[in-house]
């Protein structure tokens, strides 16, 4: 209860009245007048009544003490043992908090929300969010249930704003062990076909078993090495970049019995394969209108080094001019087709016929070049149907179609076949979806027998126009018309000759994006996109293997002819493996060096400095000898926690209250105040009357 004043007059007026009353009382005492004491008391009561004294009594309610409980639900906690310990500790804390009505626990589960590119355990961000709406004086402490692998721990000196005990209940066991593998240094880019070197390391966290670790290395799903690595020692590895575009190196260390998790037993590194300028040999059998279309296209591609020869003077064309007087360059057949044939990525025969320029043995060399992985494109015209056709040479063993000897000379619109609508070389060619196709006509094709491989473009009556086929390790394409130059010249609106020629050439040179049967995957943040390219029927479901080892079936839906796609929202970070039939693909979601997987064994050391600074405790829920969770009791403490109680979780109880109401009692209000004043003045008059 407190006394306050609520004056009826300004304090200056009351002071003036008081001074006058005091002067009158003093004058009365000085002159010895009777009743001076009574007058002084009456005047004092009058001044006090004008000041209006009021007794106030506040009605307050004690506020609860806030205790945030931060539960670690990160991926390092995601195993059966730690999850069970965490759940048991949380239930035990709830029971203990129920015994203290003045303590308000705020339970926050902190884990990877599936949006971060670099997953980590950020418990202190969760702690700050949990108490952001309350003053620090109401926070009685904080309890963290975690494995100790926390990645946002502030310095003890910077944690001064939290003036309450911080306790950590650590899951796991003190004798845990985990083996992991990491890529120490590796190039991000590499020249296709050249040697590259990287270094990897096997790391044993905790008391490892010793000895060596078996590491299997795969490149684009194919095993390229198996190494015995000593844990803690950097191991070099040499490899050759096999193709352009993304190449995925996968390192897998054999699991060890008793280790915490196998999720970090695999590591990946993506290296971008860069081709040196592709070398293309273009041999034109004679000058013709379509020759420049091929030359211009290949010369415009900065990734291609073009070597072009045109046969201007075949052996049968003899006019008696001495060789030393000719300005023509001799065709270096031996150098091109024997000595340096394997240096070319693609050989194009453009309206070429066998007229004795190349010896028969050289055609056999070209066939072997294709079967060993080379690429051959035949752009055929009327010569291919004649007696000097190269189909009559040893090159015929790799050609997908043999000519009948006839030419089809009816005007036609080139059309995509059913396979061509699905094949990445011809799928989506501009103008192909109209009927007739929105491009110009051609006027002749070479008639051939039933071809091998895939007929992706057709002429009249379904006759083959563009045939793609594999021969051994190499590839062959046959364009059975020399009329493509009409599109280049804009005849009847032209056509997509650039796209067609370029895609065909790059398919021959084994561009991964143009494979007709392929399974690829890529990521956009946390979204995993699966693409299945096929020229066959619907491929069915894909099987997705998660980093944790769990699998799920993913339905592939048709996005375009020959292209099926699925998008999956992922929550786990690590290497995903996708399989569909005989095809498989690998993709890594999230950062390859995510802190969540660098160390997974539980520890009490990371949070101990902060616990010591705030007089909190760090203790394990389970010791090395048993499986039962041992949870300490709570200890509410009034005022500051000054000592550490290792056996209990000390919590500072707040003394904060909230005002519910105020009861007031005016001293001179009502009949009691009036009666007191009347009594004083009556006594004054009575004394004076005697």
From TrEMBL:
Signal peptide region: none
InterPro entries in alphabetical order: Class_I_gatase-like
Region spans: Disordered: 411-431
Regions that span the bilayer: 12-30, 37-56, 665-686
SUPFAM superfamilies: Class I glutamine amidotransferase-like (SSF52317)
Alphabetized UniProt keyword annotations: Membrane, Transmembrane, Transmembrane helix
Protein name stated in the entry: Glutamine amidotransferase domain-containing protein
Organism: Shinella sedimenti
Lineage of the species this protein comes from: Bacteria, Pseudomonadati, Pseudomonadota, Alphaproteobacteria, Hyphomicrobiales
């Amino acid at each position: 209860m407190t006394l306050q004043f609520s004056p009826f007059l300004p304090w200056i007026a009351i002071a003036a009245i008081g001074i006058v009353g005091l002067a009158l009382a003093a004058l009365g005492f000085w002159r010895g007048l009777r009743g001076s004491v009574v007058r002084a008391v009456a005047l004092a009561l009058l001044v006090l009544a004008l000041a209006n004294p009021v007794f106030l009594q506040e009605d307050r309610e004690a506020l609860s003490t806030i205790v945030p409980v931060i539960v670690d639900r990160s991926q390092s906690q995601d195993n059966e043992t730690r999850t069970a310990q965490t759940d048991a500790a949380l239930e035990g804390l709830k029971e203990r908090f129920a015994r203290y009505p003045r303590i308000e626990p705020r339970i926050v589960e902190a884990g990877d929300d599936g949006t971060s590119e670099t997953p980590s355990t950020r418990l202190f961000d969760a702690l700050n969010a949990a108490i952001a709406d309350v003053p620090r004086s109401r926070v009685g402490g904080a309890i963290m249930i975690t494995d100790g692998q926390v990645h946002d721990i502030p310095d003890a000196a910077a944690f001064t704003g939290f003036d309450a005990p911080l306790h950590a209940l650590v899951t796991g066991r003190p004798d845990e062990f985990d083996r992991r593998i990491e890529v120490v240094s590796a190039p991000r880019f590499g020249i296709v076909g050249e040697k590259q070197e990287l270094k990897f390391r096997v790391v044993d966290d905790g008391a490892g078993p010793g000895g060596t670790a078996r590491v299997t290395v795969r490149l684009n799903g194919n095993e390229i090495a198996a190494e015995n690595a000593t844990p803690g020692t950097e191991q070099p590895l040499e490899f050759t970049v096999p193709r352009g575009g993304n190449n995925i190196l996968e390192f897998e260390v054999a699991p060890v019995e008793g280790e915490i998790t196998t999720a970090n037993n695999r590591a990946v590194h993506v290296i971008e394969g860069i081709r040196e300028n592709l070398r293309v040999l273009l041999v034109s059998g004679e000058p013709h209108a379509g020759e420049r279309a091929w030359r211009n296209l290949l010369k415009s591609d900065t990734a291609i080094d073009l070597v072009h020869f045109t046969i201007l003077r075949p052996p049968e064309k003899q006019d008696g001019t001495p060789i030393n007087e000719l300005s023509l360059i001799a065709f270096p057949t031996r150098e091109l087709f024997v000595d340096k044939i394997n240096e070319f990525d693609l050989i194009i025969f453009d309206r070429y016929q066998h007229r004795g320029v190349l010896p028969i043995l050289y055609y056999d060399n070209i066939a072997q070049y294709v079967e060993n992985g080379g690429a051959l494109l035949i752009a055929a015209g009327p010569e291919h149907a004649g007696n000097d056709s190269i189909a009559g040479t040893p090159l015929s063993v790799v050609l997908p179609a043999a000519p009948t000897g006839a030419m089809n000379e009816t005007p036609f619109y080139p059309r995509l076949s059913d396979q061509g609508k699905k094949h990445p070389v011809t799928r989506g060619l501009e103008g192909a979806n109209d009927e007739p196709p929105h491009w110009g006509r051609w006027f002749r094709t070479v008639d051939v027998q039933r071809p091998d491989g895939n007929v992706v473009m057709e002429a009249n009556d379904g006759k083959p126009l563009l045939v793609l086929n594999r021969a051994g390790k190499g590839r062959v394409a046959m364009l059975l018309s020399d009329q493509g130059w009409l599109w280049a010249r804009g005849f009847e609106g032209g056509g997509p000759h650039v796209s067609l020629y370029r895609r065909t050439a790059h398919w021959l040179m084994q561009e991964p994006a143009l494979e007709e049967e392929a399974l690829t995957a890529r990521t956009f943040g946390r979204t995993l996109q699966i693409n299945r390219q096929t020229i066959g029927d619907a491929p069915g479901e894909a099987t997705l293997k998660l980093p944790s080892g769990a699998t799920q079936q993913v339905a592939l839906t048709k996005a375009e002819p020959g292209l099926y796609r699925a998008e999956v929202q992922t929550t786990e970070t690590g290497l995903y493996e996708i399989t569909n039939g005989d095809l498989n693909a690998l993709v890594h979601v999230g950062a390859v060096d995510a802190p969540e997987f660098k160390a997974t064994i539980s520890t009490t050391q990371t949070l101990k400095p902060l616990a010591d600074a705030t007089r909190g405790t760090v203790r394990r829920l389970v010791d090395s000898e048993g499986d039962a969770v041992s949870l300490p009791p709570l200890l509410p403490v009034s005022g500051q926690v000054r000592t550490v109680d290792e056996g209990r979780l000390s919590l500072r109880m707040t003394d904060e209250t909230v005002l519910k109401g105020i009861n007031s009692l005016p001293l001179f209000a009502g009949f009691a105040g009036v009666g007191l004043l009347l009594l004083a003045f009556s006594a004054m008059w009575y004394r004076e009357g005697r």
